[in-house]
Prior knowledge:
Layout: E1 6-8, E2 11-13, E3 20-25, E4 28-37, H1 41-59, H2 63-79, H3 81-92, H4 96-116, E5 123-125, E6 132-140, E7 143-147, H5 155-166, E8 170-174, H6 181-192, E9 200-202, H7 207-215, E10 222-226, H8 229-241, E11 245-249, E12 254-258, H9 264-276, E13 286-292, H10 293-309, H11 327-342, E14 346-349, E15 353-354, E16 364-365, E17 368-371, H12 378-381, E18 388-394, H13 397-405, E19 409-410, E20 412-416, H14 420-429, E21 434-437, E22 453-454, H15 465-471, E23 473-481
Helix pairs in contact: 1-7, 2-4, 2-6, 3-4, 4-5, 9-10
Amino acid sequence: MSQRHNYVDGEWTDAESGERTAVYNPADTDELVNEYPASSVTDAERAVAAADAASEAWASTPAPERGSILREAASVLDDRREELTELLVREEGKTRPEAAGEVGRAVDIFYYYGEKAADLGGGLKSAGGSNRRIEIRKEPQGVAALITPWNYPIAIPAWKLAPALATGNAAVLKPAEIAPGVAGELLAALDEAGIPDGVANVVYGSGSEIGPAIIGHDDVDVVSFTGSAEVGHMVYEQAVEDVKRAQAEMGGKNPAVVSATADLETAIDEVAGGAFGVTGQACTATSRAIVHEDVHDEFLDRIVARAESLEVGDGLAGADVGPHVSADELETTLNYVEVGQNEGATLETGGKRLEDGDYAGGYFVSPAVFSGVESGMRIAQEEIFGPVLAVIEVSDFEEAVEVANDSQYGLSASVFSEDHSEIETFLDEIESGVAKVNEKTTGLELHVPFGGMKRSSTNTYREQGDAALDFYTKTKTVYRNY
Ligand code: NAP
Ligand code: MG
């Protein structure tokens, strides 16, 4: 395992102040996992300066060469899957299979953009005059500031860093203070793969302290943020005020519509997976099940039984559902469980803190299902970020789609139906960046555009796939007359 330090200009360094922030295992808070630099604005500025100094040479490095460094880093990560998976579980609390899946995703992303770099496009356009050629060039933006959340602590840094580097940008990554270690491992892999000094940097520390200094730095050209809507809109405004290209991908309140024609077995599997998987701590987690009255009672019985069958516990000990990542997140979930009851919804199961025996010292909560939820209730409107499912009963499909759209968010949405006209209506009308038929709201392949609508996203650029290549490059239109 590599150094738990900032990685700036090719060196592993402490914060200038020497201060560090401790990370404890959310499944057992007696276990100190690691400590990371509590960086200051000066540290952040050093990282931006290093990136800026390295950016020109990296931009003019042949793209296939950049790609081969990414692929080499992918292979370093590939060899460390086991270690990275354990570190991820111990810092963030996912179950082992969930963490292994996420680490695998990061490896795949590095291979994918490593390949892409060998094949970056531009193009020719027809010209409105003879003896003229018009060429469309794609050039790197310069320095990319990447600010990431704790909930996918390696996949999200990977899906920003890899396309930024592949397209010839230098980058400064500021991971979330919670669970930051696996993001640093991406830099360790790049270092081993021979990335030139300064091209990729990581600065650990508090987002509210160093974030604005990074985003607002004159030498930063492009800002990519993933996290909460509250912070994301602020980050976006700051970047746009400086006329920087920016994208912010934020929260969700993702619906699953279950029609009267649905295959209930599939619906139960997928809604449970979407709602309780990764402890409900996914931006794309299913948090509202909007169920037709004809199947409502059976759906409710079965989803409650499923929630109760899940074993909550330490992700390394084989549990189905890991802990919340932090005391704050646990508190927020427990608070919403209370809010829902006060609003008049019925708590069918779960929503209790587990603290006896092996649960002592961990942030565990039992998966919760609410019935009798109305769309205007806070538990149907606000992102909860825990294993809490709100079941809303509707009397026809049209109402189901209306309720699904009755949200400030629009990240991911599912429909469970065997009726073509229902499915097409849903796909036409749903206000959501991702729409799925007979599949959970979570999970998206790495080569397809990812992002939300409404308050889930600034809707500027999508992430992943070719969309990311677009975001990290600027277009130059060249006229040649001869
Ligand atoms: P967050 O609190 O918004 O933090 C995200 C990042 O922003 C962290 O690195 C944070 O640093 C930093 N930050 C905080 N204040 C800042 C400021 N004033 N300026 C610049 N940066 C600042 O989000 P989170 O709690 O880590 O993550 C959970 C949220 O992310 C949920 O809402 C979830 O839906 C969303 N999410 C969205 C997607 C998506 O693709 N749409 C994917 C995953 C998660 P600190 O760690 O120091 O606070
Ligand atoms: Mg936060």
